[in-house]
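Sorry to interrupt, but I need a hand with the structure work. Could you add the entry underneath, on a fresh line?
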Amino acid sequence: MKQIVVDASVIIAGLIEDGTVRDTLLNADEVAFSAPSYLSEKVSSHTDRVASRARLPLATVAAVLEDLLGSIELVPPGAYSAWMATARILARRADARGDEEYIALALALDAPIWSLDKDFLRVRGLRVLSTRDVGSG
């Protein structure tokens, strides 16, 4: 099974529009999605803004968020803490501050990151997937 780290930009996109991102998260075959455990809290803090932007009731956005998070293994920091020092260096060099935990998890799992955030493209040695890459298997 292919392991892929998912960042918050993918979840936000899946909440805003019922399209390819959401379908891929919910229905990808032979893919195990993972993310740092704080992803849930981070994305939940934006649900009001997402509901407004998507012109959806907050309850609908919350229900979709629950479904999306259900397709992702939320990994506690201890599982990738050994990689945090390296991730901090890589993030700093790429001007991708704030992305250290995703980078550390990707390193720990030896997995690519699925992101819509261009910052990850500057991180040396990190494989970044587009939605098309993930959907095509």
Summary: The chain is about 50% helix and 15% strand. The longest strand covers residues 31-36.
